[in-house]
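Bug #77: duplicate submission created two jobs. Keeping one. Sequence:
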Amino acid sequence: MTLLQNEKEVIALMRLIDDPDLEIFEMVSQKLLTYGTGIIPKLEQLWGFTDSSIMTDRIEYLIHQIYFQQLQTELIKWTQNSAPSLLEAGILIAKYRYPDLDKELILHQFELMRRNIWLELNNSLSPLEQINIVNSIVFNFFRFKGHELSELNPEHFFLNKTIDNKHGNAYTIGIIYLSLCEQLDIPIFAIDLPHQFVMAYFEHNYSFMDLNESNAIQQLQLFIDPINGIVYNKKDIETFLIKNEQPEKINNLKALDKNDFFALMLKSLSHTYYETRAFDLADEIESLIILLNKG
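Kept job's structure:
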């Protein structure tokens, strides 16, 4: 039954939101949640007319749960997509904190960056020259600034805030960088390293007698730090892996699956919430990771 068809029941349920009996509030909550986002305007209207702190706290809780329920549904759909988008993943994570964000504004700003890079590219550029162009647009022209994950700032995980304020972490700036490269056919992908991830340029070398792409040999010679665009060579990464007691990994570096990238980002966000003692938020993000792993 829709919201309009059951107006009387909705009004009756909303009158019980501040009932002191927690069992009654739980029953009311579960019923109101079934109406989804359509009931949010009514809850917001009630919030504006009440002076009860219990009522306002519970309304805010209900609105958050409705949006969180919607986010879970959208996440499941994302996992089932045959070609999931990292940019869409970033928007989904941002919706956790900013459920009514302006998605079109994010896409518009992204398109401005993509077009600026596209105007500078041509087929004769070397991998390093391509990387330098992307870096110039992202870090110099648009002035994005990356922050270490150790800063434990949840805001740096939300793509809308990163695009608005030009401040983010390896994940949000990485999403922008990788999505730009994907749309511009630049073979740069995320790879997982101990305690962090970097991006790598995947060169494909073909045999003169066999141009089948599936048989091409992948070579990773250039690596990019998503925080600042600094380019490293294979020796730099090998030294890093030796310091982290995983030297054998240098010969087995592979592009991160988008699902795995998303999971790493959510795990890092959950850890940030946990370390800043936002335990309820950390638990909610952990529940999203479980959904992601089921996809």
